[in-house]
């Protein structure tokens, strides 16, 4: 098929590359000229395992990038994969999505025949019906369900494994409100994945599809917060929360995934999506207590890590190493990372902070330009009076010699990546 993708961030770039790998002709559309130039050269502005080889293989061939939205008129289906950031109250700012919808509406205004627009961006259900569709209809002067179709196809890709998650999905959700032409196009588009992996396909309404994305992330966020809460209780009774989690994970009603307790969740999706659900529910007159509790618990975990450090070190004026800045290993993304409140807490205590991350240091330096950034974990730990482990990069599991070079070998592990051993004062956050 011939597809266009508006937006070349984490979601859009992965979507474009994976569609090309499935055999489709793809046009990536982005307003940033540098992004377009790099995509056409086979490069991405983001770090994502497996993405580079796909771009190198298809850029200039099945994958072309442009700043011209009119290119969408030459395709069968257009995906809107632009950002939907949070407003100060947690609600979604849909202005970028609405601008993209207007641009695509204008681009297909003179196109003969049916064109499908698929919303990949995450927005609350009412935004689709009340804002996105009217914007496309007004700009194109075409009617939804007749000359154009609008579908919702949420993404369930995790940073650090986005390519694999797209190519081997747990499910594909198609929200079309029963538009058979839209279903036929999306069925053909995703046919290679469905046939190769026998993926469950959920055919539902547009509002339901939009909510499935939020419900999915809210449930996972709440599961992590619950195991962190249980882990905090386990710590009080000198119980290893990981042994407890291994046992309860054998119950198929609970499952073993997302039971690694620690310093909490971050990233772009969980914080933004839980905030949007809370804001939307409150606007409708309902207090979503479970979701609010999940967020509150998550916000507390970095402070618990710092309190454990306080038990062993008066950090004022002391060199303290922060290991890991990205919100998870395998990415350079610092959005929602638990390292930010840890660094803020250390600075508030008067600590001399030195940080290390294999990918995210340059980005973090834009937010914390006055702290020191080491070239390696060993350099960060040298002469340090304490260390806080915030991201579970695999290299942090092999730092025995580096810990020996600390002035005061106190290690507070927020991710259970460091092995407890003699010669260091070791505290696991929930074990």
Automatic annotation (TrEMBL):
NAD(+) binds at residues 30, 84, 122, 159, 272, 335. Residues 321-420 form the UDP-glucose/GDP-mannose dehydrogenase C-terminal domain. Gene3D superfamilies: Cytochrome c1, transmembrane anchor, C-terminal, NAD(P)-binding Rossmann-like Domain. The active site is at 269 (nucleophile). Signal peptide: none annotated. The keyword 4Fe-4S does not apply. One of its GO terms (molecular function) is UDP-glucose 6-dehydrogenase activity. Keywords: NAD, Oxidoreductase. It comes from the Archaea. Belongs to the UDP-glucose/GDP-mannose dehydrogenase family. It is an enzyme of class 1 (oxidoreductase). It catalyses: UDP-alpha-D-glucose + 2 NAD(+) + H2O = UDP-alpha-D-glucuronate + 2 NADH + 3 H(+). Substrate binds at residues 156-159, 213, 258-262, 266, 328. Pfam families: UDPG_MGDP_dh, UDPG_MGDP_dh_C, UDPG_MGDP_dh_N. GO terms for biological process: polysaccharide biosynthetic process; UDP-glucuronate biosynthetic process. Pathway: Nucleotide-sugar biosynthesis; UDP-alpha-D-glucuronate biosynthesis; UDP-alpha-D-glucuronate from UDP-alpha-D-glucose: step 1/1. This is UDP-glucose 6-dehydrogenase. It comes from Natronomonas salsuginis. Its EC number is 1.1.1.22.
């Amino acid at each position: 098929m011939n597809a266009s993708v508006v937006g070349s961030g984490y979601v859009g770039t992965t979507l474009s590359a994976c569609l090309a790998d499935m055999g489709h002709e793809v046009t990536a559309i982005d307003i940033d000229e540098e992004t377009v130039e790099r995509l056409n050269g086979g490069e991405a502005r983001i770090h994502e395992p497996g993405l580079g080889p796909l771009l190198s293989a298809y850029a200039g061939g099945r994958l072309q990038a442009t700043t011209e939205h009119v290119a969408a008129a030459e395709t069968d289906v257009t995906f809107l994969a632009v950002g939907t950031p949070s407003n100060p109250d947690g609600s979604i700012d849909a202005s970028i999505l609405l601008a993209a919808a207007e641009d695509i509406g204008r681009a297909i205004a003179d196109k003969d025949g049916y064109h499908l627009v698929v919303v990949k961006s995450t927005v609350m259900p009412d935004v689709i019906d009340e804002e996105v569709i009217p914007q496309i209809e007004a700009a194109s002067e075409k009617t939804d369900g007749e000359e154009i179709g609008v579908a919702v196809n949420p993404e369930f890709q995790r940073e650090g494994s986005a390519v694999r998650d797209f190519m081997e999905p747990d499910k594909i959700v198609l929200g079309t409100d029963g538009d058979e032409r839209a279903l036929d196009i999306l069925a053909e588009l995703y046919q290679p994945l469905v046939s190769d992996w026998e993926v469950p396909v959920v055919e539902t309404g547009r509002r339901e599809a939009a909510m499935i994305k939020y419900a999915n992330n809210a449930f996972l966020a709440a599961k992590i917060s619950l195991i962190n809460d249980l882990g905090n209780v386990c710590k009080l009774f000198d119980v290893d929360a990981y042994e407890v989690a291994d046992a309860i994970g054998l119950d198929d009603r609970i499952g073993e995934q997302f039971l690694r307790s620690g310093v909490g969740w971050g990233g772009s999706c969980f914080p933004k999506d839980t905030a949007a659900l809370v804001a939307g529910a409150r606007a409708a007159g309902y207090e979503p207590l479970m979701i609010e509790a999940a967020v509150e618990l998550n916000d507390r975990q970095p402070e618990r890590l710092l309190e454990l450090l306080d038990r062993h070190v008066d950090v004022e004026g002391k060199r303290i190493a922060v290991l890991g800045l990205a919100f998870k290993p395998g990415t350079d993304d610092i959005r929602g990372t638990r390292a930010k409140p840890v660094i803020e807490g250390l600075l508030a205590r008067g600590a001399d902070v030195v940080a290390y991350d294999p990918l995210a240091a340059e980005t973090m330096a834009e937010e914390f330009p006055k702290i020191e950034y080491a070239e390696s974990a060993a350099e960060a730990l040298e002469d340090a009076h304490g260390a806080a482990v915030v991201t579970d990069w695999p290299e942090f599991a092999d730092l025995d010699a580096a810990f020996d070079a600390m002035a005061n070998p106190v290690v507070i592990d927020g991710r259970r990546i460091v092995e407890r051993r003699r010669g260091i004062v070791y505290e696991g956050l929930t074990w």
